[in-house]
Specification:
The chain has 26 helices and ten strands. The longest helix is centred in the first third of the chain and has 41 residues. The protein has a six-stranded parallel beta sheet with strand order 3-2-8-9-1-10. A four-stranded mixed beta sheet has the order 4-5-6-7, with helices on both faces. The chain has about 675 residues and is an alpha/beta fold. About 30% of the residues are buried. About 5% of the residues have low confidence. Helix content is about 50%, strand content about 5%. The chain has four domains: about 140 residues; about 60 residues, no CATH class; about 190 residues, 3-Layer(aba) Sandwich (Rossmann fold), CATH 3.40.50.300; about 210 residues, no CATH class.
């Protein structure tokens, strides 16, 4: 080997050995050393090769030891992470960490600057957990029970929530170490209360109590409504959605699960019939529960304080019905008002041919009496028409002495292979004038026809073209004229413009019509509407001479003024008749009785309840609402109000609808829930 080869070999060897020595303190695995091939011959060459190999083998051994330490540390880290101590510390004792910590202790042999930060953290964590395993177990147990709840926390339970949070924080502090689990929910009392209540609902929603309520298995929305035990709860549901069944379920839950004394539960409704229905459906669990009307409860409160006898439900009904048998029904103006409102406005707010609205009309529980009328749509001339708005138009013509024919074939032949003969809605025989009523909204749309809208609009354009081409007169009214309440004005102006005489209805015709209608289902609905308005007027204690002003207040559109003027003229006359009867008997009416009961309530300690359930809450009046608030405050009771937020399609149904639509304003901390689907077949 020449001198240059030796020098090169020495240089490479020294560089390799020096590199291994320098890297031995760094936490970095060292690659396997390369093999040096030494070429040469002679004794000196062999000696040099032996020297190089010896030094090489020593360096390789040191490298292997270095890499083994690193591997041991990495395996210790993996074993530690596999333990996942915080997931369930109860399974482990401090001894399990000893071999891991021992292996991690090898990190001290290395230059600290070269050790990955995550390994340093693992070593610190392992030592911390080994020394504090018992404290961690306590925190784990505390966190596991963080959302356990055997009760529903209402908005008035904030003191209890604050106390629970304080107790948890104190126990957390007692562990003596930083929080190892997420307790940040404790920073918000409201959020923590909501989480506790959700846990309570999930824990109890499968209760067997709900599997059979009046023979029905409750769905999740009903169960959640029952379990939601806040201070003020409004439950909204339409007809057939199981409201009464849900009320029954609430009472059973309170008595059987919450062990509430039945005597501290009050159920209020609006008539004795509805109370009787509730009693029948609640069944055996009724024992001790008070189910009453507002008026009956008010009477019970004031009977020991007042000598005057209150008017009870039956007497009110008797007075109301006697009006229709009284001499007032001989008054021509009274008859005229009733006949006009019945024929022109009772059904007129319904969208023409609007299947969606008409379905609501049929299904709404207070309108069942109109079911037969809906299917028949019979005019005063006993014709069957296609829509309720056409019914109103036909009756208008009849009442005002305008002869007409319904769907008389157009006088000119229009039949083709594609279309049958044109049948206009109305034909005014004396004046040779046609009248079409189109079911469109103000935007020229007919969405009620769905996929058939385009076809309907094309048909509408075709009809208009027929009259234009043949020079025939065609009056036009639209569905939106009815929804805006101005259809009578719109039609009257067109009739006047074409010199059609609009006559007053003869008295004998009105009397004959009233006699014919008085026993019909549709007239009973009119009486129900008038009864509702009368009760509202009584509850609001409105003086008779101020009733006329209500028409303008109720009218959202100029066209509605005539409708409400007629309605309140009728109600004003009934109200005056009612007041006269009450005053002559020296009795207390509903409104006065409820106001007196509100005042006397503080003097009657026995009327204290923990739970008050109000059925048909959408019908509540201001006086009843004030009375209810007094009852709630008197016993610090919780309220479940059950109602229907669907407003009457007739524009006025005598109820204080805002009591449901603005429930959150009445009770700012209220919960509002819904039962979304119908349970009726």
């Amino acid at each position: 080997m020449n001198i240059f080869a030796r020098i090169l070999l020495e240089h490479k060897l020294n560089r390799f050995v020096n590199s291994a020595v320098k890297r031995a303190k760094k936490f970095t695995p060292i690659d396997d050393p390369f093999t040096y091939l030494i070429e040469g011959s002679g004794e000196k060459g062999k000696q040099l090769k032996a020297s190089v190999l010896a030094r090489y083998q020593k360096a390789a051994a040191e490298i292997a030891e270095h890499n083994a330490k690193i591997q041991k540390i990495l395996e210790a880290e993996a074993r530690y992470r596999d333990l996942d101590i915080l997931k369930d510390p109860q399974r482990y004792s401090s001894e399990i960490f000893d071999p891991i910590i021992a292996d991690l202790g090898l990190l001290s042999l290395f230059d600290r600057r070269s050790i990955p930060k995550k390994l340093s953290c693992v070593q610190e964590d392992a030592n911390f957990i080994k020394n504090n395993i018992e404290a961690i177990k306590k925190q784990f147990s505390l966190h596991e029970t963080l959302f356990e709840s055997t009760q529903y926390y209402s908005s008035s339970d904030q003191t209890s929530i604050a106390a629970r949070i304080a107790a948890i924080r104190a126990r957390l502090k007692e562990t003596g170490i930083r929080p190892m689990y997420d307790f940040s929910i404790l920073d918000s009392e409201d959020e923590y209360r909501n989480r506790l209540n959700e846990a309570y609902l999930n824990q109890n929603i499968k209760s067997k109590i709900f599997d059979d309520i009046n023979g029905c298995r409750l769905d999740d929305s009903q169960r959640r409504a029952i379990l939601t035990d806040d201070d003020r709860v409004l439950l909204l549901a339409g007809a057939g959605c199981g409201k009464t069944t849900t009320i029954s379920g609430k009472i059973r839950w309170l008595i059987e699960h919450e062990r509430v004394d039945p005597a501290t539960i009050l159920v209020l409704s609006y008539s004795r019939n509805s109370c009787r229905d509730l009693k029948d459906k609640i069944g055996e669990k009724i024992a001790g529960i008070k189910i009453d009307t507002f008026h009956a409860l008010a009477y019970e409160i004031i009977k020991d304080h007042e000598e005057r006898k209150p008017l009870v439900d039956d007497q009110f009904e008797a007075i109301f019905e006697s009006y229709f048998d009284s001499e007032r029904m001989s008054d021509d103006q009274v008859i005229s008002n009733i006949i006009q409102y019945y024929s022109l406005y009772l059904f007129s707010s319904m969208s023409t041919d609007d299947q969606i609205e008409e379905e609501k009309f049929i299904n709404y529980n207070n309108l069942q009496s109109l079911k037969n009328l809906y299917f028949r749509k019979m005019t005063f001339k006993k014709e069957k028409v296609k829509s309720l708005q056409e019914l109103s138009i036909a009756n208008f013509y009849f009442l005002h002495g305008i002869d007409y024919e319904y769907e008389k074939p157009y006088k000119i032949d229009t039949a083709t292979i594609e279309r049958r003969q044109y049948l206009p809605d109305f034909y005014l025989t004396k004046y040779d004038i046609y009248h079409e009523h189109f079911g469109i909204d103000k935007n020229g749309r007919a969405p009620q026809f769905g996929m058939g809208e385009k076809e309907y609009l094309n048909s509408m354009a075709w009809k208009e073209k027929i009259h234009q081409e043949n020079g025939t007169v065609c009056l036009k009214t639209y569905s939106y004229n009815f929804t805006e309440g101005d259809w009578v004005d719109v039609l009257s102006k067109q009739l006047t413009a074409h010199r059609v005489e609009i006559q007053e209805t003869p008295t004998e015709v009105k009397n004959r019509l009233l006699s014919r209608l008085s026993n019909s289902k549709s007239f009973r609905y009119l009486k129900n509407l008038l009864r509702s308005v009368l009760i509202l007027l009584i509850d609001m204690s409105i003086p008779v001479d101020q009733i006329d002003a209500l028409a303008a207040q109720m009218s959202h559109d100029r066209g509605e003024i005539h409708k409400y003027t007629l309605l309140f003229k009728i109600c004003k006359d009934i109200y005056a008749f009612y007041r006269n009867q009450i005053d002559s008997r020296g009795e207390i009416d509903f409104s006065e009785m409820i106001n007196l009961a509100s005042n006397y309530l503080q003097q009657t300690p026995q009327f204290k309840y923990r739970y008050v359930i109000v059925d048909e809450f959408q019908d509540i009046s201001n006086s009843r609402l004030n009375f209810l608030r007094r009852i709630l405050d008197h016993g610090r009771a919780k309220l479940l109000a059950v109602g229907d937020d669907w407003q009457s399609i007739y524009g006025f149904n005598g109820s204080n609808v805002s009591s449901t639509s603005e429930f959150s304003k009445l009770f700012p901390t209220a919960k509002i829930l819904t039962i979304p689907r119908s349970h009726r077949l």
